[in-house]
Amino acid sequence: MRAMFNRCMECDEIVTNPICSECLAEQMRTAVAEDSPKLAKLIQGINTMGETLCLFCHKRVGLCAHCFSKDVHELIAEKNPQLAKKFMAQFDFELRTKIADFE
Ligand SMILES: [Zn+2]
Ligand SMILES: [Zn+2]
User: Which strand (E) or helix (H) includes residue 25?
Assistant: First the structure.
């Protein structure tokens, strides 16, 4: 029998709280659009293959929330560092500790 869990294709961690990037992107767009509708349009979900199904829309999840947030955070930081800080406070999937390590 196959295990009922799935690892993230990017960081290889087990995806414990599966939310697909489409659903995350939707939430992120709404939050970012308050400050920058233009930037919000750039946030796109990624289609991935995985064993785990999204809690909301039941699409397959192959990327953990942390990795997707990190990618989106990088995108925002490039265009608008101020907004990137706000984003990090709202979508804090262990981003803070990772960035602290990096600095
Ligand atoms: Zn990951
Ligand atoms: Zn979903």
Answer: helix 21-33
Sign of the alpha-carbon torsion through 8, 94, 16, 43:
negative
Ligand nearest to the CA of 27: 2
What's the pLDDT tens digit per position in 5-24? Answer: 688 999 998 888 889 999 99
Nearest of 85, 55, 68, 56 to residue 13 by alpha carbon: 68
Compute the distance from residue 63 Cα to the ligand 2 centre, in Å: 11
Alpha-carbon torsion, ordered 54, 101, 71, 94, to 10 deg = 30
Ligand nearest to the CA of residue 65, numbered in listed order:
1
Q: What is the pTM of this model?
A: 0.82
Domain residue spans in the chain? 21-102
CA of 103 to the centre of ligand 2 (A): 32
> Ligand 1 centre and the CA of 82: distance in Å?
25
- 30-43: average pLDDT: 96
Average pLDDT, the chain: 86
